[in-house]
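Re-run with default settings, no changes from the original entry. Doing this only to confirm the output is reproducible before filing.
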Amino acid sequence: MVHGTITDGTNPLPGVTIALKGKTNSGTISDYNGQYSIAAAVSDTLIVSFIGFKTALIPIKGRQAINIELEYDTMALQEVRVNAGYYTVKESERTGSISRITAKDIETQPVTNVLATLQGRMAGVNVTQTTGVPGGGFEIQIRGQNSIRRDANAPLYIIDGVPYASDPIGYAQTSTVFPTTTSPLNSINPDAIESIEILKDADATAIYGSRGANGVVLITTKKGKEGKTKFTLTASSGAGTVTKFMKLMDTGQYLSMRRQAFVNDGITTYPASDYDINGTWDQNRYTDWQKELIGGTALITDLQGTISGGSKYTQFLLSGNYHTESTVFPGDFLYKKGGAQFSLNHQSEDGKFRLVFSSGYTAQNNDLPANDLTYDSRSLAPNAPALYDAAGNLNWEKGTWENPLRNLPAQQESITKDLLANTILSYEIIPDLVLKSSFGYSDLQHVESRITPSTIYNPSLGYTSVDSNIFLNNTKRSSWIIEPQVNWEKKFGGGKLGILLGGTFQQQTTSRLFQSGSGFSSNSLIHDLASATTRQVILSDETIYKYQAFFGRINYNWHDRYIVNLTARRDGSSRFGPGNQYANFGAIGVAWLFTNESFLKGSSWFSFGKLRSSYGTTGSDQIGDYQFLNTYNSSGINYQNSIGLQPTRLFNPDFGWEINKKWEAAIELGFFADRIFLTGAWYQNRSSNQLVGIPLPGTTGFTQIQANLDATVQNTGLEFTLRTVNFFNKHFNWVSSFNVSIARNELIAFPNLNSSTYKNTYRIGEPLNILLRYKYIGIDPTTGTYQFEDQNNDGKLSSPDDRQTVVNLNPDYFGGLQNQLSYKQWKLDFLFQFVKQRNQSYASGLAGLMINQPERLINNWQQSGDLGSYQIYSAGNNTNAVTAQSRYGSSDATIVDASYVRLKTVALSYAVPINSKAIQCTIMLQGQNLLTFTPYDDGDPEFTTRGYLPPLKIVTAGIQLTF
């Protein structure tokens, strides 16, 4: 019996494969302490292999104790198998564009949403956080916006082989604290993820057919590994604060603005309702409302426990997690999230039968205020009254203001329960021929409510619980999927041939019930809809989506030099009418590994070179269910004791698929044993036959009809990634990774655009994400008001005729720079994210009203001949100033440079040296959004909707024990 410990020279290596040369079924793996034991003869030779290290051949020579130190192999990354969905492929042999991050990258980030883990780490993947409120969402675009409809650009999510619907589960009346309705993606636990692969080009996505037009996000959860049973416990806690406040006027600056506004308007007596300036409020009082309302500290705790292990034939993993996070708002609000994951892998002794089972359950309970206080924190007068009176009650200051804390009792609460399970059975019928089938199921239940109790109003107004109301959302979504497959792989001659055939059968059922109630005998009954005197069913529906497909793949690799990959899929969707339910999609990908040619093989400095290209079509049926049908719903109106029906949609038998044609060319180069590895890619995607709602005249009784618009959207871009191994030795390692994406979105065709209802939304040759604005030309030096160009030269300013200046809000480029360093027991990982973009400055309205303003507005026009940056102050009585301010807010003057470089993630860990080999202890310190460098003046530059809480700066500290 040979035994020993395997290390990298400093730390033990778990999961290393040890086998005997020339003997099959003789392998074992090292445990979490790097220890191994294997039965061997005195003359045997050990083969020791591990990803990222050079394979070692160790003759036993009669020894019983053999400690092994493995050497790092910088070229081993080319041997890593990448998940491509229905198959896996070596990194060096893939013909498609696939980006990947692993648990090593995910675990360094203190985040709860899976999309947050991708920011700045992948070329071509642009992720934006929409709010800093816990449970909020993110937006993702993979190689741009393909569809004119903004809600039709989401990628396909696959978790352990099961499609995961990312359609919103919220309701506009119950998700009011978020800029968008509630997303289900928060149910995915980042701590349970082993890897995330993003499929981008046609070669990678065409096998998913109509579901792959916007890219595919493949999520693989952690699985058990062979070895002794291992327990891992992780605990951390931390705090979050707003990244950046706006620079607003203080009391002196604000009151000076207000006084000047009345002077400019020719008013000498302040109106009775202008409490801030007429002496009603203390004019020496100053409150920083940003610190008061959004300047709190969110407290964060995380607990994670995992048990894993198993034998050579059966491995298991069971884990659980619990997360809590408060808000930066005043009040006791708390987001709670907990879950459990289980996986079981089994294979027969002859290796022919295999079973993989994985399941995950997540429960979320989110208690939030119904309103984001960010707008109030920026608009309240700095000399507004105190929040509380001397008795500790809300201060209404004799009815002179609306206390911003009045809305705290108006709560938004949600409970989400999410179950996902999958089983994969496979059997090798004959050598090289494997029959496999996947069975998946998902179930999501979401209950959301928002209450508006009468206590949010000034008691002097006399409102009672009769005026209280509640809105309710009950959404349920369940789906099943079965995917039988057969895979044949054979080596013959100088090549390898692989053939994959399969089918998909899926059904998803969604039910929604939106209700409201008002008039309660007591506010203590406000959560009981049955206690409401007036009840209304706003929406009650159930939709069934059925999908089936047949797919195939043929892959041929000749001498590891020339690779051809053919994929095809025939899709059928219930979302289209007879004659249009089926469509065909496919792609071809080719690759040439030219460093395997005889004239380059063995080069001492040129270690890897590959040219690859792909072309193909994918599609989209992201239009919702029953859109082609004549549909009716209940009017909810009682007429002669009957509830009537009303038409809601017109029949369109020609309603068909969106088509996305993708083309890519790329080069991959490795130098000096891949210590320098560079990838460059060019792509062009064209999406046509757009699925949109075409507006109809109101006389038809319908606002629109769902149809295919003969418009074409093109996305082109360049993507570059660079990985360098700066130092690589026994004690010190330093690896850097850089990525940058330069993307261009363009509407290249839209027949009769100028005569359509979209004529004031889009422009041929411009991106979809544009604004049409007035052209700002400066301040009139005589009147002090903003001036704008008369773009149609008709002698007057009007909208939309003079709102023709195109403003592009898409980023010019984006990317990230990551560094990973390790020295003995220390590890440091940090990532800089950068975005070159424009965005809207904060819309503060007319300067001079009873609303606070950005500090920069003190540089205003005051008298004839002034060259101030901002127009004359007005209290609302100067019609010209009011009109000019309205146009200014819709002009290109409010579009500013919102580029930024952000220290996105920092993770520092220390492996505590412990004498006992049975226990490992690691101390961790992690940070998110720690530093932001930006010319943007109005708060944090990362947002999609103004006036909502920006991302938080988070710092956590934790400890991990393994035994």
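The first strand starts at residue 2 and ends at 7. Residues 575 and 625 are 5 Å apart (CA to CA).
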